[in-house]
Amino acid sequence: MTTAADLVADQAVDHYDRFLAEHYTWMLGGDLDALAEGQRAALAEWGVTPGSAIGTAAGSLAVDLGCGPGHASLALAALGFDSVLAVDLSRPLLGELAAHAARLPAVRAVRADVRGALRELVRPGSAGAVVCLGDTLTHLPTRGDVAALFADVAAALAPEGTAVFSYRDLTVPLTGTDRFLPVRATEDRIMTCFLEYPDDYNDYTVVVHDLIHTRADSDADWTLTARSYRKLRLSHAWVLEQLRTAGLRVRHEESGAGGLRTVVLERAARSRTYV
């Protein structure tokens, strides 16, 4: 039986597979190697290293949940993790990663739902690092799914293993022209997002309209394509409380433009519960 949550998850996958995937690496800057190097430097600064976890062979495994084209997976391999599981549901993005990582045996692209991937693919207490970056958390169907994922991450991590989450806090509605968010513009492509806050789900979701103008060359007319899907609205206070409940301890936080939040955490060596 298909549930409402399944329909929301399918909508996000469809949005990427049929529309956004072909533009995604371009949207991030266009150079996957440069993106991977930038991500490697950030992860290293946050202490994401194979040697940080405790236990026999602990720390050699890293997991990238919602990997997209895989710049974080490539970064984790560059940091020295022996095995990197790159998990996503988008076939085009996984295909892009597989082609780029063809000579990197450490990186394994896996098509799986992040909601069950850790329980299905990772032995409890064996992962040195789990990262979940970009918009992955806000793509999940419900806040309950987010809380359950935090618990799965805590269970998968080795003692003193590291988790990194990033997401956008969209709980404060934008108004007027502030709802139009320029993403990137080049000679042949322009991308803009428009946010809408419908009252059908109260403050639970925001509707994201992705608008992409393309043209074949500088003399051609512009063509507009647009598609929409929903994202969860997650407040930072709620996220921190759920992480604490899952048994993860905050080590570092960062804030960025557009409500972007990054939280670096660790699983304690002896206890997973904090009060």
UniProtKB/TrEMBL annotation:
<protein>
    <submittedName>
        <fullName>Methyltransferase domain-containing protein</fullName>
    </submittedName>
</protein>
<dbReference type="InterPro" id="IPR029063">
    <property type="entry name" value="SAM-dependent_MTases_sf"/>
</dbReference>
<feature type="domain" description="Methyltransferase">
    <location>
        <begin position="63"/>
        <end position="161"/>
    </location>
</feature>
<dbReference type="GO" id="GO:0032259">
    <property type="term" value="P:methylation"/>
</dbReference>
<keyword id="KW-0808">Transferase</keyword>
<keyword id="KW-0489">Methyltransferase</keyword>
<dbReference type="GO" id="GO:0008168">
    <property type="term" value="F:methyltransferase activity"/>
</dbReference>
<dbReference type="InterPro" id="IPR041698">
    <property type="entry name" value="Methyltransf_25"/>
</dbReference>
<dbReference type="Pfam" id="PF13649">
    <property type="entry name" value="Methyltransf_25"/>
</dbReference>
